Amino acid sequence: MKIAILSRNAKLYSTKRLKEAAEARGHEVDIIDTLHCYMDITSSRPTVRYHGEELPFYDAVIPRIGASITFYGTAVARQFEMMGTFNVNESVAISRSRDKLRSLQLLSRKGIGLPRTGFASKPDNIKDLIKNVGGAPLVIKLLEGTQGIGVVLADTAKAAESIIEAFMGLKANILVQEYIKEAGGADIRCLVVGGKVVAAMKRQGAEGEFRSNLHRGGSATIVKLTKAERETAVNAAKVMGLNVCGVDLLQSQNGPMVMEVNSSPGLEGIESATEKDVAGMIIEFIEKSPKNRLNRTRGQG
């Protein structure tokens, strides 16, 4: 197969591993900088151009699109879809998962466990907003935040009011969530590929840190999932429409709760913690996908 990886940096661990895994299985791989793509949008023959030349037909594309370029990145991914290329994660699914509010609403509608969450626009709603999620302590999150940035733990109602007022004064969109104390500053990252959890790790926040992100100094260890945790991760991926994703779970007294669904999960932490060839599993999924086989036939026609 001929595979394209959409990535802004060919030296990133995840990008390198995907390329290595694909080439080890005999495939041809090109790493394409998403922002250097430009599109020829026509009714008869849509194309993608890159560095002054038209890109060839690819059997599959693996989008590694950062949150900061979601709009343009999904437009490029969508253009490949218009050309008949199999997209590991379709553009609409990436957009859906990147909108934290929308994704929580969709998960809630399907009955998937979530921390109690509030969203409001006007400052006069603050006290009731805090009360409605169970009061302090609570977590305040920027909708556009990533890797734990823009996530604040407010220990008291007064502190929560001040933080929310400050964010609203900056016209920032925020979520207010109940704090799951029993999680103990830890979460579980489940890597879902093709409707199955292929690897899972427990991420523990650094001492004094409630955020478990590895970018914030957290540590990762292998973990054995319960049936409920596995089912929750698989169902969350299905609701988002993502074939490959990271589902972050909190362990609560009411069962597993989804914190986030990540459409471009990093592979370094989970491959190191579990010693599993997750990149190889992603390539194997592409090889076995019926949609990919259909598009390969079209591309050869």
Any overview of this molecule?
The model has no long low-confidence stretch (mean pLDDT 89). The strands form four sheets. The chain has a five-stranded antiparallel β-sheet with strand order 14-13-12-15-16, with helices on both faces. It has a four-stranded parallel β-sheet with strand order 2-1-6-7, sandwiched between helices. It has a four-stranded antiparallel β-sheet with strand order 8-11-9-10, covered by helices on one side. The protein folds into three domains: 2-89, Rossmann fold, CATH 3.40.50.20; 99-112 and 182-263, ATP-grasp fold, B domain (D-amino Acid Aminotransferase, Chain A, domain 1, 2-Layer Sandwich); 117-179, Dna Ligase, domain 1. It is 35% helix and 27% strand. The chain is an alpha+beta fold. The protein is globular, with a radius of gyration of 20 Å.
User: In angstroms, what separates the terminal alpha carbons?
Assistant: 15 Å
Q: CATH homologous superfamily of the largest domain?
A: ATP-grasp fold, B domain
Tally of separate helices: 10
- Secondary structure class reads alpha+beta
- Please write the CATH class name of the largest domain: Alpha Beta
Residue-averaged pLDDT? 89
